[in-house]
Please model this.
Amino acid sequence: MNDAPPLDGPLLDGASGVEPILDRDESWARISRWFEDARVRRWYGGESHRCTPAQARETYRRRAIGESPVRAAFITHERAPIGYVQFYRVDAPEEYQLPPEHDVSRTWALDLFIGEPELWGRGIGGRIIELLCAHLEHELGAREILIDPRVENARAVRAYGRVGFEVVGRLRAYEEQDGVVHDGLLMRRLASGAAGQNVEK
Ligand SMILES: CC(C)(COP(=O)(O)OP(=O)(O)OC[C@H]1O[C@@H](n2cnc3c(N)ncnc32)[C@H](O)[C@@H]1OP(=O)(O)O)[C@@H](O)C(=O)NCCC(=O)NCCS
Model:
């Protein structure tokens, strides 16, 4: 289980940041609107994914207010929400096709999307991942952080590589979207001084 507190204030790096999601209708409407864009759904959720404001509230509210093991926050630009990020402790190595002896006691994972495609590729993702990783490592004791982009998601793989993530494996038949099975890449960032466990399968 996740014993970490939810984010209680913004983490900022210049104009970019990560901020708590307030439990308000406008938060759920905003998430719903991001998923109306097929370019966003292509990389997060799948082409056929639909998310009304009520569904967004149902899915994300508990994560936002700290009642779920998954912690959620908005990605912000100039203090306005532009995307979504969630982070959580990894419970079991098998979730990432890691060997059963892999120690996940200080392992966290991240998922995110910027919901406004015109803001992709401008360095915002890299900055906020760095901010969040520093938070996980320094405040929550993470030694290992995992992220699992689809193999063909070149922008994401490049962004993660720029902030210290390395590809350590291929996740075969990892997720199914709209009847198509995709492979993922397992990418890992180690906190400074952390020993890398062998992840070869
Ligand atoms: C993945 C995501 C969070 C990255 O954030 P971002 O702000 O776009 O990333 P950055 O700008 O920090 O870095 C992107 C890098 O990819 C490069 N890039 C941009 N478009 C690219 C493309 N089509 N193919 C390959 N590389 C690309 C950029 O030049 C940049 O590299 P550089 O810093 O060496 O120049 C964001 O693009 C996004 O939300 N995408 C849609 C949803 C998604 O894919 N979520 C991730 C699921 S794992």
